[in-house]
Write a structure and sequence with these properties.
Blueprint: E1 2-15, E2 18-31, E3 35-39, H1 46-54, E4 61-66, E5 69-70, E6 78-81, H2 93-103, H3 108-121, H4 137-150, E7 155-159, H5 167-184, E8 187-191, H6 195-201, E9 204-208, E10 215-220, H7 235-259
Parallel strand pairs: 3-8, 3-9, 6-7, 7-8
Antiparallel strand pairs: 1-2, 1-4, 4-5, 9-10
Amino acid sequence: MNILAVRGVERRFASSTGSTLALQATDLDVAENDFITILGPSGCGKSTLLRIVAGLDRQTAGEVLLDGQRIEGPGADRGMVFQSYTLFPWLTVLDNVCFGLRERGMARAQQLDIANGFIAQVGLKGFENHYPKQLSGGMQQRTALARALANKPRMLLMDEPFGALDHQTRELMQELLLGIWEAERKTVLFVTHDIDEAVFMGSRVVVMSARPGRIKLDRVVPLPHPRRYSVKTTPAFMALKAELTEAVRTEVLAAQAQMA
């Protein structure tokens, strides 16, 4: 069952010389429980598409439907996790995770029950009273993930959430998020530049073209769950990685040619 439908979505940005087409008419169907990773060269419109789904940007043509209802702005039914940690520095881990629940008017006892459950799930039990400045980058991103999950959104929207982390922490966060997805089966749209990450995390991988962006390739990931890091050595993983690497490389070269 599809819960998200992107229909003919286009985005133009006005400039002093006219307008720039960043995203050409794009269609995408997202089924319930899908984990879709989105690849493509810089400037291809990946983040623009994600922001439109989040309601943080408006398309100039087309529509986006969530559960059949047109998206007109941000909503609690979509949880957003950015590359920058976007935590409130004056709030503790616990109160950052409680923030959305408090804004909805939930009783404090219920807030704490939900928040503590997700704090434990992301491996931060014992850090509830720490402030963001006292946490590593990985721990801050765990907090951001717990905050998004606590609101029980229909979808998680993730814009290169692990891009600022070191390699080892990034791999640990990939395994953490994938384990949560396998348990919760939350629908996810996940933008990344990392092809290994896209294949390891996704149930589907979408490749976008150079600007103006469009969906060039849409591949199902034929890897079983529960999925462990050892899957990266399998022929199925390597074959899909090779196909996606060539597809992305072609678009990166096209983007460079546009700039020449």
